[in-house]
Amino acid sequence: MADVLTHVFSTFIAKGGQVNHVSGTLSSPCSALVVGDSTMSRSVLLLAALTAASRRGMKVVFFTRTQIQTLPQSVTSCLPNLSPDSLKMIKFCYPRTLEELLLQVASLHEPENTSPTAPSLIIVDRLQNFLCGPGGGGGFHQGEQSCAAHLAALLLDTAAFLTQVLERRAPWLAPCRLLASFQPECEVGPADPGSSPAVLAVLDRYFTARCTLDRDESYAAVAAGLEDVWRLDLSGAGPMDPSDPSDRADCTTQEWQLVVFTNRSMEFRSV
User: Fold this and answer.
1) What CA–CA distance (Å, rounded) separates 36 from 121?
2) Long-range contacts formed by 157-164: CB under 8 A, 24+ apart
3) pTM of the full predicted structure?
């Protein structure tokens, strides 16, 4: 999935910017985890979905608990000529619980979801909302690490299965990519301080790349008078070795800035 993220950042980069594409080979199926602010990460996910559908002809399945009534202006400003046919390539699904999400992901193996064309991109928005306990009491599910591993394994297994279907029927759309977002702190309440890093460590073992969103509060960003400036670090060299926490240290990294202007337009800049 890092190839789609790189394509998104490169497509919408500010004029005159220079882009060095992520080097190295990511294993198939490709997968990436967007980590950071949930509002900005959703914008990145939506832009990836719309770009994949409109510019690469990919069928997209987008899972989220929060119903999407309208697309953010910052996203639509990047694609002003978006056609209704492109939107039809994206299927939005709204599971309410982890169990519903697991069932809906598993259903992607069924023939009605692979005909005439299987999805080329699976997106899961805000994984933490599915892993957090219900009822607003805060914290992750009991056994949150095993839940995260189960969900990530099913997502990767489904992507691998869909890749095989695509290779038989539409090889130009293969492999099936996987993109998900995760905010370390649960949004339904304060998480157990020890749970969030542990869950993220589990997810890191399954996803081949990570895109980290950090707000840029430097003097230069503030002086520019922009509403939001975010630093994006896209890194990936395959799943981590669970026995070696420093395994990600040798990953290839590409850096961008995501700039959201006060008029809600959005652009990317190379660093």
Assistant:
1) 21
2) 158/105, 158/106, 158/108, 158/109, 158/122, 159/29, 159/31, 159/122, 160/29, 161/108, 161/109, 162/29, 162/108, 162/114, 162/118, 162/119, 162/120, 162/122, 163/28, 163/29
3) 0.83
Pull the structure tokens for residue 45.
Answer: 């996910």
Cα 88 from chain centroid?
A: 20
Q: How far is it, in rounded angstroms, from Cα 254 to Cα 10?
A: 11
Q: What is the pLDDT of residues 135-166, one digit of tens each?
A: 434 445 557 889 999 999 999 999 999 999 99
How many degrees, rounded to 5, is the angle at CA 81 between CA 76 and CA 86? 85
Helix H or strand E encompassing 219: helix 219-223
How far is it, in rounded angstroms, from Cα 11 to Cα 60?
19
Query: Percentage of residues in the chain with pLDDT exceeding 90?
Result: 41
Helix (H, G, I), strand (E, B) or coil at 241: coil
DSSP-assigned letter for residue 142:
T
Contact between 207 and 239 under an 8 Å Cβ cutoff? The reply is yes
Burial track 140-149 (b if 16+ CB lie within 10 A, e otherwise): bbeebbebbb
